[in-house]
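Mods, move this if it's the wrong board.
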Amino acid sequence: QLDVDPDAIEVPQVPQIPTDSASPLDHLPLAPSMSSSSLISMGSRARSIGDKTDTSSWRKKLARLHPVTNTSVLLIRTSAESPCPARGYEYQWYRSCKRIDDKADCESESGEDASHGSSFNVEGWYALSGATYAAFQPSATDIGHRIRCVITVDPTQISGLSSSENGDMSDEETFQVVCELPFAVVADSGLFNAARQSFSGPNGGVFANLKGRGNAEGRMFRLQIMPAEQGSRMIIFQTSGTTAEPIHNIQQPILAASAIAAPSEPKVFELFFPSGLPASAVMVQALCNDDGRFLLRSPNRVSRES
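Not the wrong board. Structure tokens:
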């Protein structure tokens, strides 16, 4: 967020990134910046001006100078100084279904009254299960995607008064507000570099103390992930104390496994296997849920994100 007036009609001036170095990333902060003003309000104001301003250029500059990463926290507030009331506000966070590349302008389709049909249309957006609070922390799964929150406001519930005490407030209808990140989430550089360095060794990275969920409830696991020519190789071990036994043939590692982070639980993720499982991985298949996903819980969020 930039320290500017979100109600100003002029597009804020963003400092230019120096071009005299090999990489502009050398000049970026390693952690997101925060200030007392709202980037979302500023984006909405710029969109309302229409053709009077070119929003694509400042959006790209903001994304570079003030990145939102998988260690950032997004907050919905009535203003920079005031949180939303505890009553009368409901939240639902969304992730864009398509990943955003550098050439995508990512213009929002929201901005008109919801009764017109298109403003709060969630087509192209995936509702994040359990992400129904004023705060949201993006995960590694959100990298390359934009984030949106749809807030449903019930004016009759805000004051906490009865209909007779509310007077005219009781006649106000529920309405919705869309807050949308104008650029894609990026990977935290510290986590990304640490994970890349870990996986680059001949034995890859090892993630231990993983608790099973679903069909694997009550079991402990360890993952060893090694580099491969195409994707990765994974071996899954079941552990008990200091003992670790592979639950499939280590000569037949699981190829190109991937994962999805739970949007509302900071340690939970699901493994899935786009390339299928080797013939020896019968136990792995038995421990997966009905849609073939292996449910796990990391000891901490950093391990999950890595």
